[in-house]
Prior knowledge:
Elements: E1 11-15, H1 18-21, H2 57-65, H3 73-76, H4 80-94, E2 98-102, H5 105-108, H6 119-134, E3 138-144, H7 150-156, H8 163-179, E4 185-189, H9 199-203, H10 213-238, E5 243-249, E6 252-255, H11 260-282, H12 287-295, H13 306-312, E7 317-321, E8 325-328, E9 351-352, E10 358-359, H14 361-375, E11 379-383, H15 401-419, E12 424-430, E13 450-452, E14 464-466, H16 468-479
Parallel strand pairs: 1-2, 1-12, 2-3, 3-4, 4-5, 5-7, 6-8, 7-11, 11-12
Antiparallel strand pairs: 9-10, 13-14
Helix pairs in contact: 4-6, 8-10, 10-13, 14-15
Amino acid sequence: MSTGRFPEGFLWGGATAANQLEGAYNEGGKGLSIFDMVSFIPKEERTSGIEMDVRSEQELNDLLAGKEGDNFPKRRGIDFYHRYKEDIALFAEMGFKTFRLSISWPRIFPNGDEQEPNEEGLAFYDQVFDELLKHGIEPLVTLSHYEMPLHLVKEYNGWTDRRLVDFFVHYAETVFDRYKDKVKYWLTFNEINVSTISPYIGSGILVDRVDHVEQAVYQALHHQFVASARAVKACHEIIPDGQIGCMLARMEVYPETCNPDDVLAALEEDQKNLFFTDVQVRGYYPSFMLQYFKKNNIQIEMLPGDEEILLQHTVDFLSFSYYMTMVASGSPDKAKEKGNFFSGITNPYLESSDWGWQIDPKGLRISLKKMYDRYQVPLFIVENGLGAYDTVEEDGSIQDDYRIDYLRAHIDQMGEAIQDGVELMGYTSWGCIDLISASTSEMSKRYGFVYVDQDDYGNGTLARSKKKSFDWYKQVIASNDIID
């Protein structure tokens, strides 16, 4: 029987992003996005655990010119653009209360700096939202999920240019006004802290154009903070009953030992991770980050009124992705591992996924408790899941018990955190239908409850089929908790 730990109205569902899902990159008046330029690199040829950066003007021009054999999986996605009704019906069959998706900014403003939006792009999302609402599924919409228009990179070097604040706010106000009667839950920037490891994907920065990369990244982030706060203001004015949150790639950090040097190193890493939500939830730059800027010769240029905007227009809730925890050491000579998304020391107490991401369900409970203690605002887990190789059996079934085990363990710890007093709004499992991996552009790294017949090179029928985890998650939602 259900233990009843999850509150009535808990928002169970799944999460996706337009660039990994939609396809149709050159249909409906859409412009190119930054992720349209990230190609697939086979595992044996990768130089790191992630391959999603474009660093130079020359590299970007070469990608735009194209060459024989180019493979840009995010351009094709899984053809949600044409198959959204079929996919949403599957989500409804599982009982989704919410579905997290993103609006592709260049579908609405192909270049990003136009005044007039692309009506065909707006109409597409009208149809998607109508289909979701028809099935009783609340849309949870991310405004910017690694999909900024490529033109803004070429013309302005991304968010290094203050003018992008106005472009983004114009885009946000346009979609708020269009969908105010259909969408009540919004997020501003997906995993805003990713700019620190991928300036191109997080902020549209070509690093060969700047002299001081960290300076450029944190200036770009300041512009995003201001844009986010202004979007919050616009959302509250245009959609009075709406709620809008920020989104962080959460990295809980443990000290390697109880040596105070390790404890201090872990604390400082954790502060750097929570800096982003400090600004968006509390409304100001924390003192530890101002000291970091001073030590690293980083000077943030603020306009009059910026600090007031950040303070007055904080988010309604804090959403985050959770895939792994990290380990920090006070020893500068300690070797770093490349398996985790953010490189760190291997934790000997944890198992790892097929991609070397360490699996830590209890770390989710720790993180929920820590963030709720720090912020006292509702929390929302909008990404969590297991990327794994799936095998289709002779009878067509996919016996993904490993995924069920992973999700069961994490959902159990969520329930324990709620019992501990954490206010948790909902949970959207990442990649509820198989899609293109953000970090490696693979199709073979699968997260979904629904299998999609496509390989890393675009071969396959795109047929959808249910995995074993489909019925398991359906039961979780129906029961409002896991059932042993």
